[in-house]
């Protein structure tokens, strides 16, 4: 049994497993950073743009509604 645990296959397998775990940890950390950057950028830049576009659409609809009530029809 001790011959098996000290064989070169077991040694290389342990090294490979350690390297794989290291790479996976680094990849997960990088992915988390990218997700954080993407999320905060979306919140700071895209959400206000969407809100402003919605507000503009509501004002346009209100203008059309007022024009139709006053009998002028859409411009």
From TrEMBL:
Keywords: Membrane, Mitochondrion, Mitochondrion outer membrane, Protein transport, Receptor, Translocation, Transmembrane, Transmembrane helix, Transport. It is a single-pass membrane protein. GO terms for biological process: protein transport. Coiled coil: none annotated. InterPro entries: Tom22, Tom22_pln. Its main location: mitochondrion. GO terms for cellular component: mitochondrial outer membrane. Pfam families: Tom22. Belongs to the Tom22 family. This is Uncharacterized protein.
């Amino acid at each position: 049994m001790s011959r098996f645990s000290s064989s070169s296959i077991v040694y290389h397998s342990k090294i490979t497993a350690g390297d794989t775990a290291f790479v996976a940890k680094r990849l997960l950390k990088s992915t988390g950073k990218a997700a954080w950057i993407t999320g905060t950028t979306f919140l700071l830049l895209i959400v206000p743009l969407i809100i402003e576009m919605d507000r503009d659409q509501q004002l346009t609809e209100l203008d059309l509604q007022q024009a139709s009530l006053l009998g002028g029809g859409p411009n």
